[in-house]
């Protein structure tokens, strides 16, 4: 068996065009969707991610308010800045670029953003909603994973899904969504110290890799016909590698392209979420 690769670029382009149309409709109705992007410090990698997000927003007609804060900012001052943005009626959604400097407490910062403006979907209210039949805001990468699974035509209800990784941005919320009442899969959360990792993966219909460990999953760990989605990234010796070894394509039915970033899906889902929040405000 040779896996079919998800065409992430084509999916991303379709999502971009859809967002352009939705943003134009909102503007015709007198609403300018606006994303506040908060960047703390001058980390080059974070700056690259932020610039790509701004470029995407400009392409579709979402206004951006970029706020760059000193790396030495105190927790109290950062929280005050977020409160001001949250109270600004011109702002549709707020995104704080992660990771933050180590002296800042990320959980408290994320909770300071109201659930109604939380485009990352990491507020406790939004995370809890992932377990319900009607999730409110799905974290962007997880929303991208969900869209890719839908393209494969997979029936998630009752399916065995292995989520490798338990991080705040992907693994944790992915497990909540897929095991929740809207998707009804049977989910096992794994990590690099899990016992019998191979056995669990081998019995999974779907594998979502988000561990950030280069080529951790090999072809002998994957059952024939499984769907494999790799969002893990690491850079051993300076080259991007995913969590899934390219040879997994010999046994999977569907698979994300080996050693490729999933970033285009995450970025496009950010646009969709900003527009969702704008439309919800109008409807309220």
Automatic annotation (TrEMBL):
Cross-referenced InterPro entries: Aminoacid_DH-like_N_sf, NAD(P)-bd_dom_sf, THF_DH/CycHdrlase, THF_DH/CycHdrlase_cat_dom, THF_DH/CycHdrlase_NAD-bd_dom
SUPFAM superfamilies with a match to the protein in the record: Aminoacid dehydrogenase-like, N-terminal domain (SSF53223), NAD(P)-binding Rossmann-fold domains (SSF51735)
Binding site for NADP(+): 165-167
Domain Tetrahydrofolate dehydrogenase/cyclohydrolase catalytic: 14-120
Cellular component, GO annotation: cytosol
Family annotation (Pfam families): THF_DHG_CYH (PF00763), THF_DHG_CYH_C (PF02882)
Recorded superkingdom: Bacteria
Gene Ontology MF terms in the entry: methenyltetrahydrofolate cyclohydrolase activity; methylenetetrahydrofolate dehydrogenase (NADP+) activity
Single GO BP term: L-histidine biosynthetic process
Keywords in alphabetical order: Amino-acid biosynthesis, Histidine biosynthesis, Hydrolase, Methionine biosynthesis, Multifunctional enzyme, NADP, One-carbon metabolism, Oxidoreductase, Purine biosynthesis
Enzyme Commission numbers on file: 1.5.1.5, 3.5.4.9
Catalytic activity: (6R)-5,10-methenyltetrahydrofolate + H2O = (6R)-10-formyltetrahydrofolate + H(+); (6R)-5,10-methylene-5,6,7,8-tetrahydrofolate + NADP(+) = (6R)-5,10-methenyltetrahydrofolate + NADPH
Domain Tetrahydrofolate dehydrogenase/cyclohydrolase NAD(P)-binding: 139-280
UniProt pathway annotation: One-carbon metabolism; tetrahydrofolate interconversion
Function: Catalyzes the oxidation of 5,10-methylenetetrahydrofolate to 5,10-methenyltetrahydrofolate and then the hydrolysis of 5,10-methenyltetrahydrofolate to 10-formyltetrahydrofolate.
Record-stated family: Belongs to the tetrahydrofolate dehydrogenase/cyclohydrolase family.
Oligomeric form and interacting partners: Homodimer.
Stated name of the protein: Bifunctional protein FolD
Name of the gene this protein is made from: folD_1
